[in-house]
Amino acid sequence: MEIRRGIGDWEFFDLPMEMVYQAATEWKSALKGVEKPWLCWHVSEPWTRLQVNLVKQIGWTPIVGYDPDCGDTKKPEFNDCITINFNEQFGFQKMYMHFPLEFAFLWTERLAFWHSDLLVRIPLMAKTAGVFETLPDGIVAACPQYGRGLRDRLFPTTYRMWELIGMTTAGASEDQFAKGAGWWKHFWFHPNCPDEKERKKRSAHYYDHGTGVMYWHRRYGGKVQNLNERDFREGHCTSIGNKSYVEIKRIAGRKMIAKQLEINFKIEEVAERMGLTELL
Question: pTM score > 0.85 for this model?
Fold first, then answer.
């Protein structure tokens, strides 16, 4: 499906890798001299502005990418950050953060990232940044998920590393790509999956983003730094486990991410509750 080519799903990605390599040279050029990049994926102006200010607060450089699905194709403008149109070479109808994240080794030595709907108290933000700053090359940090309930803990095929918040390093990213086990969905369709026998084995695993990273860790001994999802739950403005969440009527083929977020969560209220009002 055309709509899924840019969301980070190997089952539907059919472009030559040369296009990615060429695009990544431009991404790398944009980050020249940046030692601590933190990717903020723009879907809503007030939410991205607060995330950008949070990243600057703890001494990292905000890197703003953006999704055409947010409804505004114009380049977002925020102060003291680097904005990259990761979609410029491709023209996808949707592009998720997972797309450039998969190829981090091509354009940066390390990259912190988080969901567009996540806010973090400043002390926890500083503590997490401290973990990221000392993470050696070859290691990835993220939130492990052991399935979607207690029963799933008995089935490692449901495990994944969740990209709610995390950091990757060039060494980890490159090794994941070489072994065909990274951030994208349906990692068994990765072009570097060794053979059909391995492909069949992998296809028994959960399909979603980050399952490949968990597989890389468990199958190949890839090194991970676990982050506790519960530490960040307070500021995750999501429909997950939210009985009062209101689903809006969507345009066919679009998630309406910005409107969905803004309708369900008042950023001023969330910021006040988390001590972030001064960063609005």
Answer: yes
